[in-house]
Amino acid sequence: MKRSTFSSVSSLAIIFAASNASARDTVSVVSQTGLGQFAELIQSRAFDSEISLTQSGEANEGRIAQVGDDNRAVVAQSAIASGATAIVGQLGDGIGIGLANDVSIGQSGRSAAVVLQTGAGNLTGVVQRGDDATAAIFQNNDAGAAIGVNAAAVAQDADGAFIVLRQDGAGASASINQSITATGADAIVTQIGVSDSVTINRDKDTALVCQNFQIPSNGNGNYGGNDSTVSQGAGANSASVNQDGLDGTSFVTQSNGGNATVDQNGNNQTSTIDQSDSATADVVQSGDNNGSLVRQDGASTAAVDQDGNRNNSDLFQFVDGATAEVDQRGNDNRSKIEQS
């Protein structure tokens, strides 16, 4: 095993580069203490290698690049005010596609983490403790689920925390936890592919999005391209979205304890649920080209079941205790209900 160790209390840049030949079992360890430290570490054509970077102090930055398979990058950055920045890229080497790489980042203070992984079977874990922490994770599976799926997990205990996560490819999974004591936290998750899933827990809220777990009920074998957005404000809100089929769209907006369930099976379905109180809405869409809008401003209950094609339902509830049920069978039906 090749091992390189470097410690510094200066602000000098540090560069480690493996040779152009294939490097196996290479370990690089860098430790820095002080203000405004910068480290850049590169392992090219590396296999089963590791980079460990530790920075203690304000306004530090670390950059890591690993090209190859079975590599691991570990970053630990501790600060109080201005925080630190970590940028990690794990890519294929031009021969392979990048497999089974692993990133682990732990940060305190006002920190930022950026991770890019290509290939399959990659893992990313980010833990951030400090106000206004941000994380951006991009995983691109160009290998296919048969080789391995990508997974990402982010935990943020910080006011004003923000996450952007994008996963391209089949079978990706994401888990996001934002502290229930934090305020102003937000997460944006985009998954493109089949059999992807994401779970978001924040501010006592729970959001579960599952996309493309089954071939749609019409059996035509087309599935993918679904889009789901969940936005949760104050209160213990809960949202569950399941999208099977092609080009489904779901929007859920909740505050003050809303509960929403969306199940889309078919093609080109559209569902919008807007809840501003402890309301409950259940939307089921089968067939193709159906549209449903549910808007609830009170502690009400709504159920929409669309089984057919080109059906449309608009349901408005503006009073506590309201109950409405819409059942559309067949094609080209229209329904509008307003309760106030």
User: Which blocks of ≥5 consecutive residues have pLDDT under 50?
Assistant: 15-21
Supply the number of structural domains. Answer: 1
Largest sheet: 15 strands, mixed
**Alpha-carbon distance between the termini?**
72 Å
Mind telling me the C-alpha Rg? 23 Å
Structural class: mainly beta
Tally of helical segments: 0
The shape is flat
Going across the biggest sheet, name each strand in turn. 1-4-6-8-10-12-14-16-18-19-21-23-25-27-29
Question: Using DSSP, what is the number of strands?
Answer: 30
Mean pLDDT: 84
Please estimate the helix content: under 10%
- The percent range for strand residues is over 45%
Question: How do the SSEs run, as a string of H and E?
Answer: EEEEEEEEEEEEEEEEEEEEEEEEEEEEEE
Describe the structure.
The protein is mainly β. The protein has one domain (about 1-335). About 0% of the residues lie in helices and about 60% in strands. It is built from no helices and 30 strands. The chain has strands spanning about 1-10, 15, 25, 25-35, 40-45, 50-55, 60-70, 70-80, 85-90, 100-110, 110-120, 125-130, 135-140, 150-155, 160-170, 175-180, 185-190, 195-200, 205-210, 225-230, 240-245, 250-255, 260-265, 270-275, 280-290, 290-295, 300-310, 310-315, 325-330, 335-340. The strands form 3 sheets. The protein has a 15-stranded mixed β-sheet with strand order 1-4-6-8-10-12-14-16-18-19-21-23-25-27-29, with no helix packed on it. Strands 2, 3, 5, 7, 9, 11, 13, 15 and 17 form a 9-stranded parallel β-sheet that branches. It starts with a strand and ends with a strand. The relative contact order is 0.06. Mean pLDDT is about 85; it is low at about 15-20.
